[in-house]
Design a protein that fits this description.
The protein is an alpha/beta fold. It is 32% helix and 18% strand. The strands form four sheets. Strands 1, 2, 3, 5, 7, 10, 11 and 12 form an eight-stranded mixed β-sheet that branches. Strands 13-14-15-16 form a four-stranded antiparallel β-sheet, with helices on both faces.
Length: 487
């Protein structure tokens, strides 16, 4: 019987597959590229829901949104409520812990500060680098957001906005979303000044401690990174890796013709708005906003710089895995909770049932599996729980709704599943999106379950999802796509 492997589970926020190993020439990601070359890259991996909390819940439970019933951020006690409603469901780290693993959470592996004690062998650790400005309200969320910025310009901007709000509406002073700093930051600081550098330091120390303890139980080390969530913060040197002139218009930015309803909903959700302006609390204010050309270039440049900074921290952790001698018996996973649109369909953010929001990077390196050959078959986040349990020599639970990726690790050319399934929610409408190897088909349903509108994109002819074919599509094709179900 082989020794149970350790797991290094790395998860970030809000990244579509914009890495060099995924063919993006603008990306500077040597460590992700090396991980892909030594393991398995999944070309067509998708999340279950394009929002942080629901996506991470589906990933960690191996269940779909309709099962876990999570469609928004929710409260810090979500998992306690889930266990009361569905007492048989367990998270991936909880299942491993019950099988004798030591399960450790460094920074945000679940959503924000959801601790979920049953999942972890010890209380989660959270990064807290950066000092809190003296003017900041004595409120946890306010302090946590204010300490992230390191540049004097962003700190001054935050304070100025806070003072204006405090004078106009004293009772609203703790509404930190109304006195944010800017959407990006390029400060002349070292890597440890921001949360990812501090988190990588902690992960490296933990790996060395585990290697030194010869009698330790196998380790599941979950490491979360938040700098690829707005605001995009990265030391100056990662900005200099990129040429700002490379970041022009996104594919589909001016030419896309999504269903009118979907386009309206996407524009209304543009996320950088709340950093450039401070009237996000006013209903409808966000709908009219689009970045100027310089702002769009700044945003894309900042996003790619943040990804390069993340890549460097992941590289440091992987080097420590080699240095400690643990690499040969450790399964390494990297993914993100969901993707993020950078102007496609005039959409900046997440939350829509489109490729930029739903497609995620997924890199997996397992002992004795993977040779750098990519997997083009369709995969989804719910597949990770049964896959990693099998890697640990454990039987996946019957309630898990994903399919193990182990056959694809053994044979990357295997066909895989016929479709993946995701949901999204905007206002009162819920989107059910099916992705086949060729098509993406989405139904928008009203609260009564009635069809409101449809979207259909042919990825063979239109990978940017620029033209919605649903109004004129062959009725038999639509009937077939409607009939496909995750059940």
């Amino acid at each position: 019987m082989r020794q149970q492997p350790n797991f290094l589970f790395l998860i970030a926020h809000d990244i579509s597959p914009r890495f060099g190993c995924y063919g993006d020439a603008r990306a500077v990601t040597p460590n992700f590229d090396a991980l892909a070359a030594g393991g398995t890259l999944f070309e067509n991996a998708f999340c279950q829901f394009p929002m942080c909390a629901p996506a991470r819940t589906c990933l960690m439970t191996g269940c779909r949104p309709g099962t876990v019933q999570r469609y928004d951020i929710g409260g810090a006690d979500y998992f306690a409520g889930l266990r009361r409603r569905l007492p048989w469901i367990r998270t991936l780290p909880e299942l491993l812990r019950s099988a004798g693993y030591q399960t450790v959470c460094l920074h945000k592996v679940l959503h924000e500060y959801e601790a979920d004690p049953p999942s972890w062998s010890e209380p989660p650790w959270y990064a807290d680098s950066g000092d809190v400005p003296a003017w900041c309200p004595d409120d946890f969320d306010c302090r946590e957001r204010a300490r992230r910025y390191q540049s004097g310009a962003n700190r001054s901007l935050m304070e100025a906005r806070f003072r204006l709000l405090q004078a106009a509406e004293p009772s609203a002073a703790t509404e930190f979303k109304r006195w944010r700093g800017g959407p990006v930051e390029r400060a002349p600081v070292d890597d440890a000044a921001y949360y990812p550098g501090e988190t990588a330091d902690r992960a490296i120390a933990r790996l060395h401690a585990h290697a030194a303890d010869r009698g330790a139980a196998p380790l599941f080390l979950g490491v979360g990174f938040c700098n690829t969530h707005l605001p995009w913060l990265a030391p100056e040197r990662y900005w200099r890796l990129h040429d700002a002139t490379d970041f022009g218009a996104a594919a589909g930015y001016d030419t896309s013709r999504p269903a009118p309803l979907a386009k309206e909903l996407a524009v209304a959700g543009n996320e950088p708005f709340q950093y450039y302006r401070q009237d996000d609390h006013i209903p409808g204010a966000r709908a009219a906003w689009q970045p100027t050309t310089p702002q769009a270039r700044e945003l894309r440049h900042g996003h790619y710089a943040a990804v390069s900074y993340l890549d460097a921290q992941v590289g440091r952790i992987l080097a420590a895995l080699d240095d400690t001698g643990l690499a040969g018996n450790t399964v390494v996973v990297f993914t993100t909770d969901h993707g993020f649109a950078l102007g496609e369909h005039r959409h900046w953010g997440k939350g829509m049932p489109w490729e930029p929001d739903l497609r995620v990077p997924l890199l997996l390196r397992a002992p004795g599996a993977g040779s750098g050959q990519p997997v083009t078959a369709l995969t989804e986040h719910v597949d990770l729980l049964p896959t990693l349990l099998e890697q640990a020599g454990l039987e996946p639970p019957a309630w898990a709704e994903g399919s193990s990726l182990t056959p694809l690790l053994r044979n990357p050319a295997a066909p895989g599943k016929p479709a993946t399934f995701s949901q999204a929610r905007r206002g009162a409408l819920t989107a059910h999106s099916t992705r086949t190897p060729r098509h993406r088909y989405t139904r928008w349903l009203d609260p009564a379950g009635h069809l409101h509108t449809e979207e259909l994109y042919d990825h063979r002819a239109d990978p940017a999802e620029a033209t919605n074919l649903a109004p004129d599509a062959d009725r038999s094709l639509l009937a077939h796509l409607r009939s496909i179900s995750p059940n």
